[in-house]
């Protein structure tokens, strides 16, 4: 992957940015779910899931099938020195 292609993965597309801005400004469960339906692996997916967890609770969000990436999982396989 070239540097330009890498940078493209580090930011939202204009369409995704518009969907995210709409979800944030609306601030409803339906708006965040609409964003995640359109961009399930989007740049703001973690934030959208977090907003849903704040509104519904983590277990309810998990039941809907949304999961946040495990944090620190890369470090769990590294031996301590």
Structure write-up:
- The protein has 81 residues and is an all-alpha fold.
- It has a domain at 12-67.
- It is 58% helix and 0% strand.
- It is built from 5 helices and no strands.
- The longest helix has 13 residues, at 14-26.
- Mean pLDDT is 83; it is low at 70-81.
The major beta sheet can be summarized as:
none
Proportion in β-strands: under 5%
Number of strands: 0
Q: pLDDT under 50 segments (min length 5)?
A: 70-81
Query: What pattern of helices and strands is seen along the backbone?
Result: HHHHH
The Cα radius of gyration reads 15 Å
Please give the count of helices: 5
> Which overall shape is indicated by the principal axes computed on the Cα atoms?
globular
What structural class do helix, strand and pairing data support? mainly alpha
User: How far is the first residue's CA from the last residue's CA?
Assistant: 33 Å
The residue fraction in helices comes out at 55-70%
Mean pLDDT: 83
Write a compact overview of the structure shown.
By secondary structure, the protein is mainly α. It contains five helices and no strands.
Summarize the topology.
Elements: H1 3-8, H2 14-26, H3 29-38, H4 45-56, H5 58-63
Helix pairs in contact: 2-3, 3-4
List keywords for this structure.
81 residues; mainly alpha; 58% helix; disordered C terminus
């Amino acid at each position: 992957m070239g540097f330009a292609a890498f940078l493209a993965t580090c930011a939202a597309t204009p369409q995704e940015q518009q969907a995210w801005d709409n979800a944030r400004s609306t601030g409803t469960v339906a708006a965040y779910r609409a964003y995640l339906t359109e961009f399930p692996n989007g740049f703001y997916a973690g934030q959208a899931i977090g907003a849903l967890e704040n509104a519904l609770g983590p277990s309810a969000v998990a039941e809907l099938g949304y999961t946040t990436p495990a944090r620190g999982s890369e470090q769990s396989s590294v031996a301590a020195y």
